[in-house]
Amino acid sequence: MAEYNLAVIAGDGIGPEVIAQGRKVLEAVAAQSEGLFFRTTEFPWGSDYYRETGRMMPEDGLGQLSACDAVLFGAVGDPDIPDHITLQGILLPMRRAFDQAICIRPAVLYPGVASPVAGKAAGDVDLVIFRENTEGEYAPVGGRLYPGTPHETVIQSGVFTRRGTERIIRAAFEHCVRRGGKNKVTSVTKSNAQAFSMVFWDEVFAEVAADYPQVQTESLLVDRAAMDLVRWPEDFDVIVASNLFADILSDIAAVVTGSMGLAPSANINPEGRFPSMFEPVHGAAFDIAGRNQANPLATIFAVAMLLEHLGETEAAQRVNAAVLRVLNERITLTADLGGTASTQQVGDEVVRLLGG
Ligand code: NAI
Ligand code: MG
Fold it and tell me: What is the CATH number of the domain that holds 10?
């Protein structure tokens, strides 16, 4: 028997809408699996909490989460609160404090889904992005000097450690070997312009690659990689990149494979000392929030990644299979995939298909 403590932070915008469907699917799959139980605690943190308290989460928020087995996260962001406050108030501190260094973001063009790129058929695109998740360009290192004067000076530093760089690159190679895809790891940098951090990254990439002689390797500059992801997405297998570059490439990979509403993300603590976190790649999506029209499938795919991470492989496979059927049947889809179904109807359909 396995019983897991799950922390859920639905957050803002479409976060609560898609998380409600993710929870529903998780509860349904647990109910169908003998001996699988989730004890779920929902934390009402995010922008409303900020308006009430001046903080995105309580001071001991991370302490409250630290004992759980995994975190399911929706999104944060609010039209009236600056984005650096919302993201730096909860999401980025969690990734750092729980050392969720390995961010895994698959992007697959599934049967039933149309790519906006002409001529790409289901199965053509099947890639996964490994994003360094705890340092790089998102390290809160810098400062602002003489604000509001003609001498105003702003410094934002990138932080690249050997530990951080090596472990994301090694994780990408390990995953490449395990997944048995096109057997290629593509490293994405900008070492022609960022001659310290990215040159260092390239060196570490070459060192780690030497341990995997059977894996094909490639290094691309980020601007070229962005272009290739659009014109030749089928050429990629595993992509490894820094926090910022992989963030940007994830949105490109998501739309090329159909929608932001299909892209999940796992934020893994490699040593398992802290909880790992699972979320959709997308944000709060103000333009569609509150309309029951957000696609919940990214979150439901993230639930499958959560189950896989906990070792509940069979339950994970059932969730993935149900989502693939929803996509392939093309009857119950949200507007982003050309359908007219609501967020809730898509969640209900996944639950209905879980059984068979
Ligand atoms: P976004 O990902 O929220 O939206 C981008 C576009 O994709 C929008 O047109 C949106 O309607 C569409 N989209 C996103 N999710 C969808 C879904 N499930 N179904 C259908 N369409 C979907 O990115 P944006 O607009 O840059 O950011 C909005 C807010 O979210 C900002 O405050 C930003 O800081 C925050 N954000 C938060 C993230 C997080 O909490 N992990 C990640 C990205 C952004
Ligand atoms: Mg992003």
Answer: 3.40.718.10
